[in-house]
Structures are given as C-alpha cells and as structure tokens.
Amino acid sequence: MAQSLSHIRVLDLSRVFSGPWTGQMLADLGADVIKVERPGRGDDVRQQGYRAKDEQGNETAETSSFLAMNRGKRSVSINMSTPEGQNLIKELVKQSDVLIENFKAGDLVRYGLDYESLKQLNPRLIYCSITGFGQSGPYSHRPGYDPIFQSMSGLMSMTGNPPDQPGGGPQKVGYAVSDLTAGFYAIIGILAALNHRDAISGEGQYIDIALFDAQLASIGHIAMNYLISGIVPQRMGTASPITCPYQAFECTDGHLMIAVGNDSQFRQFVELLGLPELADDPRFTINRLRAQNQKVLIPMLEGVIKTNTVKYWQERLDAMNVPCGPINDFSQVFEDPQLQHRNMLIHIEHSTVGQIPQIANPLKMSATPVSYNRPPPTLSQHTDEVLGELLGLDPAAIADLKARGIT
Question: Where do the record's region annotations for Disordered lie (predicted)?
C-alpha cells in the first residue's frame, strides 16, 4: 500500500534532535529519507544517551538518543567539507524533494549547499533550515540548545513551584520540548510547501524555522493571557491560573491529577468529597471565582483527597466523567492498558541490536497508515546502496571514495 509521502525523497543533513525528529516523521509517512552523516562519527547523538544492548547483553554502538529520532532512514556518510563530498550531495539534491538542515545560520554557504545555490540545481526543492534563533536578527549567529529557548521564551518563568513552596524556582520541562516543537512546525511547513509546489506553483521554497520562535508560539495562550491582562504569569506548580481545581492532589499512595473543567463538574466533584456546600459558596460558584480564590479552596479539597488512594479516587471520578489521571513514572506508563490498546509501544528488528523498542507514531490514518519500514540505521549502513542506486556509482568508485575519506 502506498503511503502519504511514498513519492517524496528527503535529504536529511540535520543532527541532534529537531531536524532528525522532522525527518523521522516524514519517514513514518512513507518518504525515502536519506540521512547524511560525517564519516566515522556521524550524528552527535550517536554519542549521547544509553547504549543499547544486543540479544547477548553486550553493549552496541547504538544509543537511545539516536534510536529515538532516526527510524525509517537510510544512512549515508559523506564528508561535506571536501569538494567531492559537496558534489555528491548536490547530485542527491537533484533527485530530492526536500532538504532539512540545522547548521548555524550561513554555515552551508561556504560549501555551496545553501538554498540559493541548490535551487539552481533543483528549482522544485523544499529547503528547510532549523536554527536556534533563525536566519535573521541580532541573535541569528548564536548557537543554542533547548534549555536556552525554554528560558528565553518565558516557559521556565512559569514552570515550577512558587518561591514560597519547597523546591520553588524556575524549572526546565523534562524533555527537549523546544527541539520537538520546532520539528513539528518544520513538518507543517514542509507539507504546506510541498502542497503549494505540486498544486499551485511548480516550484520549491525556503523555510526558516527558529527554535526560539517555535517555543514562544507553542505557549501562545499563556502569552496572550499576559498581553490581554498585563499580568505576568507566575509559577504555580501543577495548578492553573485560570481554572480551578486543576492540579495534582496528594493521595495515600501517590498523586492524582484532577482537572475540573466546568461548574457542573465542580458540583459533582465536591459532592463526591462530601463537601456539597462548596458548590453554592459565593466564592466558588463559577470557575473565574474559584481560580481567584484557590488558595482558600484547595486546602479544603486536599484534606479529603489525601485520606484515600489514587485508585479509589480515580475510579469514582471516572464514573462521574471528571477528568483525572495518575502521575505515572515510566515504569508505569508502559503498563497502561490504554497505551497498550493503542499500540504506542512497538518493536522493530535492528541489524545489530535485535529487537528494539520504539514509541509509535501517534497518527492513526485509515487510508494511508503509518508503517515502519526501516529501523534506525547504523552509521553509513546504506552508503553503497544509495550511491549505487541514485548516482549510478559502481563498487570500485564507491570503494575509492571511502579510501580517500570522502564517504
């Protein structure tokens, strides 16, 4: 069965997280994604994370970070600092629909691999650049990693406990959120550009994605709260400044996240707790008032909830259609029956590791379902295959390139 993007070829020159995440999503949708890596070393994340073990329990060269971001691709090693390597990439560009790169702004100009140069070779090319601060502006020259964009975008200023509570202070979100958010925006841009090329213009275009921009855009509703009210958002732990009760509550054996979304749910909730009078208390009758008075309301609720277990409250709240869920660690996440029913944990056969776990793509498509045609590649695994298939190089020519350090 043909997939959504089985007619598309992607040249992935990116490293680390945001660009590779973008390429993996396109590969899941059927694109032929060719990952270009440095000979001998490869993507930086091949040296980051935990080493996967083979079926005999021996450590392999494959790392958890690389395995998370590079499913479905073919790995080709090319030394782009050499003229011969640059020419190989240019020949691949001629046969590609999309190019993804996340070098510092302007870096690829010196190799002749910038958009202005490559569009002369392939006017239909969609060229997507992902950088920390974008291609223009006073910070465009700066390097950056996820924590920088979490901090500068305002995300860390509103994440964490208030200063008067234990552990108070700004906190980083527990994963590289700005990298993956930028990757999602890149995917949207690439798909939109492909549609414009194929349905309207016949020509490619340049896409400039900045992690800083993407992180700010993704928290737009909180930023809008500030822009409309002038009130700077404060750190509130798991609570919300505009909805209440909407936070984690301590139980006898863990914590339960409870999200009461409207006034009728609140009435049911307090009746369950044996506090029905709170529903008619003038301080709590509507959500806006509950949010304003949550320092008074929450201790009343906490006193009851902490007398029983997570399961006890979850079962009763589920029966009342009040949204709630346990705060799981990862030993619990993958035991969740909903996750298992949705097949969100899959296993793929890897050439050196054997069976490796993968977090499945969450897209459920009826006509063009996601498929997992290739595991994350070993370094340079497909160099001979790609150079022979796409560029017509024979084994002797490929061997010569390897001997000279070009591939």
Answer: 40-64
Per annotation, catalytic residue among 43, 146, 179, 213: 179
CB 238 within 8 A of CB 160: no
Contacts of residue 339, defined as CB under 8 A and 6 or more positions apart, other chains included, come to 333, 345
Bridge partners, residue 75, by sequence: 35
* CATH number, span 9-218+340-403: 3.40.50.10540
Any alpha helices (H) in 94-237, and if so which ranges? 115-121, 146-152, 177-196, 211-218, 220-229
Do 249 and 301 contact (CB within 8 A), yes or no? yes
pLDDT tens-digit readout, 106-142? 999 999 999 999 999 999 999 999 999 999 999 999 9
| Residue 271 CB coordination number (10 Å) | 14
The H or E element that residue 246 is part of is: strand 246-251
Token pair 């924590």 is found at 147
Q: Which two tokens stand for residue 38?
A: 């440095």
- Peptide bond before 245: cis, by omega within 30 degrees of 0? yes
Are 9-218+340-403 and 246-329 in the same CATH fold? no
**What's 246-329's CATH class?**
alpha beta
Give the number of residues written for the chain: 407
Q: What are phi and psi of 61, to 5 degrees?
A: -80, -10
The two most distant CA atoms of the chain are separated, in Å, by 84
Q: Contact at 8 Å (CB) between 347 and 355?
A: yes
Contacts 24+ apart (CB under 8 A), 357-362: 358/67, 358/71, 359/68, 361/25, 361/28
Query: In whole angstroms, what is the distance from residue 337 CA to residue 237 CA?
Result: 28
Torsion over CA: 309, 314, 319, 323 (sign) = positive
107 tagged catalytic = no
- Dihedral-angle region of residue 287 (phi above 0 means left; psi in -120 to 50 means alpha; beta otherwise): alpha
pTM of the model: 0.94
Distance CA 289, CA 24 (A): 45
Where are the chain's structural domains?
9-218+340-403, 246-329
Distances (CA, A) of 22 to 106, 117, 182, 327: 21, 23, 9, 29
Mean pLDDT of the chain: 96
